[in-house]
Input
Amino acid sequence: MPISAEARVLRIRNLTSCYGKITALENVSLHVWENEIVSIIGANGAGKTTLVNTISGIITPTRGSIVLNGKNITRKGPEDIVEMGLTQIPEGRQIFNSLSVIDNLRLGAYLRYRKGKAKEIHADLDEIYSIFPILKERRSQKAGTLSGGEQQMVAIARGLMARPSLLVLDEPSLGLAPRITAEIIEVISGLKKKGITILLIEQNARAALSISDRSYVIETGNVLVEGEGRVLLTDGDVKRAYLGRDYREFWE
Amino acid sequence: MRMYNRRYEKLIRQDIEQVQLERLQSTFTRAFKNIPFYQNEMKTKNVVPSEIASVSDISKFGFTTRDDLGYNYPYGLFAVPLRDIVRINSTSGIAGKPTVVGYTKNDLGVWVELLSRLYYASGITADDILQISFVFGLANWGRGMAAAAENIEASVIPMSFLNPEKEIMIMTDYKTTCLVSTPSHALHLAGLLSELGVDPEKLSLERAILVSEPMSPEMRSRIGEGLGVRVSSGYGIPEVMGPGIAYECAEGRLHIAEDHFIAEIIDPRTGQPVPEGQSGELVITTITTKAYPLIRFRTGDITRFIPDEACPCGRTMRAIEPPADRADDALSIRGVKIYPSQIERIIGAALGEVVPYVIVVHKVRELDELDILVEEVESLFSDEIKILERMIAKIKDDLWEILGIRANIKLVEHVTMKEVKGEHGVIMKNHKMKE
Output
């Protein structure tokens, strides 16, 4: 059997998640291959955040399987999943405002620090600063005093400090001005060039699609369509629902 | 080995299944949401899209037939608003109404991708000069083949409906390297070459990509020799997008584009899957088509899966044998599929009643000819010859307009099967005709 060049990072089959009696996610299957940017787009309440939280172990699914790097993580807790290589950058950034930028970054490497890899972590900080030069300038500043865009960079950088095999970004553009959003999207696209594999959850469909290798559109808990990012930019359903065209004008 | 889409054409089985499952689930979700026909089908079978947990769960759903396509004429099976449709192709349906297939812009992109894979698999490069030649009834296929050839930057000689002698002149003068056509037409051209005294060695022609008709190994080698070319083929159906469902690699295997289609092989009588490797009817489910998704569509073509083993060409997609038979009574006239019921409907409409008739398909210089012998029953009788002539002309015109084929219509006083059997070819009669 010929072996394909790509390693398989994430493989999800038939994932269903409920809040009590309400099914928020139904029979969702998706995959992320090595060094891909895969995005999940959908309207508010479509099930995007439920999906991320199920993947990272915060919500336990009622059905389905999640395999990360060939290991089943379906019913594992978030702390185990992080250790197995998945890091989530939560919605709303959730950085430690009263700590300095550098301390925030170090906390991202907490698990590795406990394993006695302090030297390695130090080297990683230089790497991070090369991706985010602004954070080097601000490294002693309290994170809470940074602008929204810079805080998002801290959150992403903190995630990278764990050296994840899959970086999951939940709504990184939330609450950011359009210009700053563009900057963050640029940063994410740059991470791919560094060899990082990314699962991006975004409400800003156009921005997400423009940098995604592939994308899944979810609606009321189901995957409606999957395809290449640039292809979905011209997909009628996607345009109607997420790219800000008037819905009515399309159906006669 | 050159491959148009290395990433997908070489996927390992586990990944193909993952991709198929994801796309199948979203296809069902969209079909259930947007197409009342599939919604009803699912409701009567008491199944919902979320029951698809593996590719094999597809068998919980019923089949879609050509009749279903006819009943939903014209736009009943479209899954997107008309606004999103950029191309509409009609093919003659069997339920009296044409089958209307719509494509979104992205569907056309998939079509181009699949045909580009076919060209790569056949060894076509940007250096090739392609001559695309299809009969009127297959114009849509020609259009797709031309678009994909341009996509891979090959040169395309515009398709027009030339007479074969002109085609050979163009082939010689334009230095065509590849002929894209049907097997019967290629065979006709091969015969013409020797008649005209053109030495195939002197032509630049190297390859022939022949689609839309079954091609026997014997026919294939005759074409290969007669034109001095390497012959390859592709498989498709007009209800999906023409050739491109499967394409032949250098090893002579027809690989199915499994990242776009799910293929099943069933027993046409029971509808149950046949044991692995046995022949049966090919059933196709589209999993990336947006405008016109088909779920478990019965193609009517008989084939079998080639046993799963690594193909030396490197493609991991499953392969089928080139379909040679039909599960139904469709006739292939120069690559155009025709059902006797379609012909009967046209005769009935023109004459005001269905009279005994015989359809004879035979070959004249390698090209299919369709003769229809209509019995001149008493009720048709008129002392004005003009009236009869008008009836015949109407049948002829309708066959051309509706089915895109030309036929010879003969009124006969009395004909029995015995007499017709003297001629060669496929013979079909309707129930009113005596043995």
The longest strand of chain B covers residues 367-375. The longest helix of chain B spans residues 13-34.
